[in-house]
Amino acid sequence: MVRRCRVLAAFAATLSLVLSPLATPPLAEACTGITIRPKDGSVIYGRTLEFAVDMQSNVVVIPRGFEYSGTTPTGQPGLRWKNKYAVAGANGFNLPMVLDGFNEKGLSCGLFYFPGFAKYQSVTAEQLPNTIAPWELGIHVLGTCGTIDEARAAIKNVHVGSVVQPQMGIVPPVHYIFTDAAGRAIVVEYIDGELKIHENQLGVVTNAPSFDWHVTNLGNYINLSPTGNTSIKIGEQKVNALGQGSGMLGLPGDFTPPSRFVRAVAFSKSALPVETAGEGVLQLFHILNQFDIPKGSARSIEGGKEVSDYTLWTSANDLKNLRFYFRTNQNSRIRMVDMKKVNLDGKEMVVFPMSGDEEIVDLSAVNKRVEQATMNSQQATMASSTATLQLPSSQPAMTPPAATRPTVAGPLVIMSVPPQHRERLLAWPRTAMPGEARRNR
Question: What is the pTM of this model?
Answer without folding.
Answer: 0.79
